[in-house]
Amino acid sequence: MKINVLTLFPDMFTPLTTSMLGRGLDDGKWQLNLVNFRDFTSDVHHHVDDSPYGGGAGMVLQIMPIKKALDSLKNKGKVIITAPQGKTFNQKMAQDWSQAENLTFICGHYEGFDQRVYDLADEIVSIGDYVLTGGELPTMSMIDATVRLIPGILGNDASPVEESFAHGLLEYPQYTRPENFQGMKVPAVLTSGNHQKIAQWRHKEALRATYLSRPDLLEQYALSKEEEKMMTE
Ligand code: ADE
């Protein structure tokens, strides 16, 4: 997969070149193409923004350099603008995007884009109901969530299958050594060696964690009769 990012701050993306995603880049499992759209301005001062028509405070990012930067790309794939007014990003979107050959993100700053820039996008996506100073951190979050689902990026291919949201529930609790830490014990079922009982316990704990922390997720999750029984036990 090749991901293009149109940004005024390409240096902000160095975190993506470390850890698992960095190894994936080195191994050629994905590519990151950072494009500074300031390079596509034609005036001597390289302006990318101007004051809003109709008056008002702040500046608005202009369409011209962004459109030229987009046109310079060979393969854009889906064009995504990160902005607080977009629909909220989720695991399902990360799963869909992880199948793509190309993705292009456009990162905004200041008071936002000229409305005609939004019209260039296939999707406007937010990371939550709060406002950041720019689209770089949201874009990095979305790239991380997406790229880690590309086969071979995580050490263990099976791990994304078990994690939170993968089946519409939060993940069950995990434990590792020691079995007893200052009186805080690992649930006995996990050391019982009974795999069926362990699977049942994990499923029940996933349901419980979801019910306690994110009951909204259960509204979209079709509980089976058996699961309903588990919840009331
Ligand atoms: N840019 C500024 N705030 C944002 C948010 N919450 N999500 C996506 N992009 C943003």
UniProtKB/TrEMBL annotation:
<dbReference type="InterPro" id="IPR023148">
    <property type="entry name" value="tRNA_m1G_MeTrfase_C_sf"/>
</dbReference>
<feature type="domain" description="tRNA methyltransferase TRMD/TRM10-type">
    <location>
        <begin position="1"/>
        <end position="220"/>
    </location>
</feature>
<feature type="binding site">
    <location>
        <position position="108"/>
    </location>
    <ligand>
        <name>S-adenosyl-L-methionine</name>
    </ligand>
</feature>
<comment type="function">
    <text>Specifically methylates guanosine-37 in various tRNAs.</text>
</comment>
<comment type="similarity">
    <text>Belongs to the RNA methyltransferase TrmD family.</text>
</comment>
<keyword id="KW-0963">Cytoplasm</keyword>
<keyword id="KW-0949">S-adenosyl-L-methionine</keyword>
<dbReference type="GO" id="GO:0005829">
    <property type="term" value="C:cytosol"/>
</dbReference>
<dbReference type="InterPro" id="IPR002649">
    <property type="entry name" value="tRNA_m1G_MeTrfase_TrmD"/>
</dbReference>
<dbReference type="Pfam" id="PF01746">
    <property type="entry name" value="tRNA_m1G_MT"/>
</dbReference>
<keyword id="KW-0808">Transferase</keyword>
<keyword id="KW-0489">Methyltransferase</keyword>
<protein>
    <recommendedName>
        <fullName>tRNA (guanine-N(1)-)-methyltransferase</fullName>
        <ecNumber>2.1.1.228</ecNumber>
    </recommendedName>
</protein>
<keyword id="KW-0819">tRNA processing</keyword>
<comment type="subunit">
    <text>Homodimer.</text>
</comment>
<dbReference type="GO" id="GO:0052906">
    <property type="term" value="F:tRNA (guanine(37)-N1)-methyltransferase activity"/>
</dbReference>
<dbReference type="InterPro" id="IPR029026">
    <property type="entry name" value="tRNA_m1G_MTases_N"/>
</dbReference>
<dbReference type="InterPro" id="IPR016009">
    <property type="entry name" value="tRNA_MeTrfase_TRMD/TRM10"/>
</dbReference>
<dbReference type="GO" id="GO:0002939">
    <property type="term" value="P:tRNA N1-guanine methylation"/>
</dbReference>
<feature type="binding site">
    <location>
        <begin position="127"/>
        <end position="132"/>
    </location>
    <ligand>
        <name>S-adenosyl-L-methionine</name>
    </ligand>
</feature>
<dbReference type="InterPro" id="IPR029028">
    <property type="entry name" value="Alpha/beta_knot_MTases"/>
</dbReference>
